[in-house]
């Protein structure tokens, strides 16, 4: 099997846009959760989310702040109507990651060796809901010809391929909140097996729309308790946790075959060494009480990496600020045994909220940055831990730590689990 | 310039983000103004809405230039 390394990163998140900008805020323990601006929340039990702050005022953004998203810099107004926001976020994150990797394939050979694997949990939920209303009120002849291509999940991969001339494998993952991690793991495998030399991989989501918030509220999954103090709402492992806070955005990585990256003198962030998957076969929205599915995914990832649990330095947990946080943490404790006291685990969802299909992707990026900078991001709002654990959960502020090996966990509705392990390249 | 032509031009410029100087009566949506087949479907929908007329699919297929649209609409409206 060929080795796979990471040579480019891109982020669009509730903490802002751009890897350097977001990473600084993350280490500083800042929250990206604010009152929802995308729509009028009157009558909704949850009125807060992690929206992408933009120059047009969305998500509390403004033109004079750094790291603001600018839709007009990604697409012209004409192109914009062909794509839902999750695709715009994916395109912007891919632009950043490809520029960071300094990879601009121009020959047929290079273009055909470069693929795209960007997924989404739900895709164009906004246009689906809006178009259903048009259909009901005005009839079938008023449905836009751009409705379907703006909403299809794999159009994120499609649009990125068209924009950059990437003619290799064009694929997409849909595994709810495990999407981003699965996309990166699967894309790494495509390179390892020789289907491509370079893959643009990650996840994107834009479900902070009325039907998205209403739908997750109905599942009893969203937090309704902190509408007046949004920055305190996402609090994994804390006694006051009360459900997840939805986020939006995208995370994208450029994955590359090791020799290919070395030959062109690319900057190498880390290596993808392990990837594990499993199914709970238990419940549509809840994990099994013993965390067995997540545990098996982590074990499989370690086995693929040829590593022992004691090799892990940092785990970016799924940690959504729900009852499932401790189930995952107990599974990690069982996995690592005595190594627990030396292990660092944090939930960056305490700051970004839960980006659903993009969550695993941005968290893989954070795990890679932990290796690059030898810094671990914190779990904020961890004022009163619900249970005791020997594991360091990095409350409040990020800190320096030797991180040679980092694992990112992502678990999704339907009982789907993924763990991806990254390792420092000497 | 007829009123219909002006209104058609306005829609085309807006929908296709086209250079106003290029949006002449003879301009083809696809060959001259950069539209694709989905754009032309959306254009026809916009004409229907603006002029409150129905443009059946078989007629829409023959509307390929700004002038074609003006001619069809004027005939429909009995202008």
UniProtKB/TrEMBL annotation, chain A:
Query: Which InterPro entries does the entry mention?
Result: 3-oxoacyl-ACP_synth-2 (IPR017568), Beta-ketoacyl_synthase (IPR000794), Ketoacyl_synth_AS (IPR018201), Ketoacyl_synth_C (IPR014031), Ketoacyl_synth_N (IPR014030), PKS_Beta-ketoAc_synthase_dom (IPR020841), Thiolase-like (IPR016039)
Question: Under what name is this protein listed?
Answer: 3-oxoacyl-[acyl-carrier-protein] synthase 2
Show the NCBIfam families listed in the entry: fabF, PRK06333.1, PRK07314.1
Q: Which UniProt keywords apply?
A: Acyltransferase, Fatty acid biosynthesis, Fatty acid metabolism, Lipid biosynthesis, Lipid metabolism, Transferase
Q: Does the keyword Transferase apply?
A: yes
Q: What does this protein do?
A: Involved in the type II fatty acid elongation cycle. Catalyzes the elongation of a wide range of acyl-ACP by the addition of two carbons from malonyl-ACP to an acyl acceptor. Can efficiently catalyze the conversion of palmitoleoyl-ACP (cis-hexadec-9-enoyl-ACP) to cis-vaccenoyl-ACP (cis-octadec-11-enoyl-ACP), an essential step in the thermal regulation of fatty acid composition.
Residue span(s) of domain Ketosynthase family 3 (KS3): 1-424
**Pathway listed:** Lipid metabolism; fatty acid biosynthesis
Stored Gene3D superfamilies: 3.40.47.10
**Pfam families listed in its UniProt record:** ketoacyl-synt, Ketoacyl-synt_C
Biological source species: Brevundimonas terrae
Domain of life per record: Bacteria
Q: Which family does it belong to?
A: Belongs to the thiolase-like superfamily. Beta-ketoacyl-ACP synthases family.
- PROSITE patterns noted in UniProt: KS3_1, KS3_2
Segment forming the signal sequence: none
What parts of the sequence cross the membrane? none
Stated EC number for the protein is 2.3.1.179
What is catalysed by this protein?
a fatty acyl-[ACP] + malonyl-[ACP] + H(+) = a 3-oxoacyl-[ACP] + holo-[ACP] + CO2; (9Z)-hexadecenoyl-[ACP] + malonyl-[ACP] + H(+) = 3-oxo-(11Z)-octadecenoyl-[ACP] + holo-[ACP] + CO2
From TrEMBL, chain B:
Q: Where in the cell is it found?
A: Cytoplasm
Major subcellular site? cytoplasm
Pathway given in the UniProt record: Glycolipid biosynthesis; KDO(2)-lipid A biosynthesis; Lipid metabolism; fatty acid biosynthesis
Q: Which Gene3D superfamilies match?
A: ACP-like (1.10.1200.10)
O-(pantetheine 4'-phosphoryl)serine found at: 37
Q: Which residues form the Carrier domain?
A: 2-77
Q: How is it modified after translation?
A: 4'-phosphopantetheine is transferred from CoA to a specific serine of apo-ACP by AcpS. This modification is essential for activity because fatty acids are bound in thioester linkage to the sulfhydryl of the prosthetic group. 4'-phosphopantetheine is transferred from CoA to a specific serine of apo-ACP by acpS.
Keyword tags: Cytoplasm, Fatty acid biosynthesis, Fatty acid metabolism, Lipid biosynthesis, Lipid metabolism, Phosphopantetheine, Phosphoprotein
Q: What does this protein do?
A: Carrier of the growing fatty acid chain in fatty acid biosynthesis.
What PANTHER family does this protein's entry cite? ACYL CARRIER PROTEIN, CARRIER DOMAIN-CONTAINING PROTEIN
Indicate the family of this protein.
Belongs to the acyl carrier protein (ACP) family.
Give the protein name, as stated in the record.
Acyl carrier protein
Name the species this protein comes from. Answer: Brevundimonas terrae
Q: What is the lineage of its organism?
A: Bacteria, Pseudomonadati, Pseudomonadota, Alphaproteobacteria, Caulobacterales
